[in-house]
Design goal:
234 residues; mainly alpha; two-stranded antiparallel ribbon; 58% helix
């Protein structure tokens, strides 16, 4: 009698990959380990995911959704900043590699839900559209990410870790408050280019146009076309 497909199998595989990712980062993610964790076979995993990079992308997107869900339950920007840091420190292995090569495809062409949530909150507080606050959000994101990585890599614990988190939250709020007072948003360097769009999937652009794809040291324009498998291996 033929076996009926398991409608929950793909999610079970993804959940298993996420657990491995949280425990040990990308090094722990092998197709065989995922199959074992999901209580299935390696060929079955390959039927759902082309290769390790494919499952890594799925795990990355799932982790971003989980972070977004945590931030969505906050009420203020400061609270969102604190919850962001809590998430990073509680899931340090996953967080450390979550943003690897985020300025390159495919990450650059994906939705950045938490980044966009922060921008929306900034627009609600400061006025204007979310895109107008992209430069400010990059500064705030750098502050949060830098703090998280210093604590993780520095293995800070106890009072130092607590003070580090609250120092970041205080600095975050001070920057936003300063931006509220300076309605013109004065800053150094050139103005933010209108054709530089981040975190908006297919709308994302850099360098005044399509997202560049770097391959073998040569920068090429991404056309969105994928070569057939046989052609890619010629």
């Amino acid at each position: 009698m033929p076996r009926h497909p398991d409608p929950e199998l793909e999610q079970r595989i993804l959940d298993a990959a996420c657990r491995l990712w949280r425990r040990g980062g990308t090094k722990s993610l092998t197709m065989r380990a995922v199959a074992r964790q999901a209580r299935t076979t390696t060929p079955t995993v390959y039927e759902r995911y082309r290769d390790r990079d494919d499952i890594l992308r799925a795990v990355r997107l799932q982790t971003r959704r989980e972070l977004f869900a945590v931030l969505g339950r906050t009420l203020t920007l400061s609270q969102a900043c604190e919850r962001y840091l809590d998430f990073a420190l509680e899931r340090s292995h996953a967080y450390e590699v979550l943003f690897d090569r985020i300025a390159q495809p495919p990450s650059l062409q994906e939705v950045w839900p938490s980044f966009n949530l922060f921008r929306q909150r900034l627009a609600q507080r400061l006025g204007g559209s979310p895109r107008e606050h992209t430069r400010l959000m990059l500064a705030l994101w750098s502050l949060m990410h830098g703090t998280a990585m210093l604590i993780i890599r520095g293995r800070a614990t106890g009072a130092l870790r607590t003070q580090w988190v609250h120092a970041c939250v205080d600095a975050f709020e001070a920057i936003v408050a300063s931006a509220a007072r300076s309605r013109r948003g004065a800053h150094s360097g050139p103005r933010w280019p209108k054709d530089l769009v981040l975190g908006e999937a297919g709308q994302s652009k850099v360098n005044g146009g399509d997202v560049p794809v770097a391959k073998r040291g040569v920068t090429k324009r991404h056309t969105g076309k994928v070569k057939p498998k046989a052609e890619r291996h010629r």
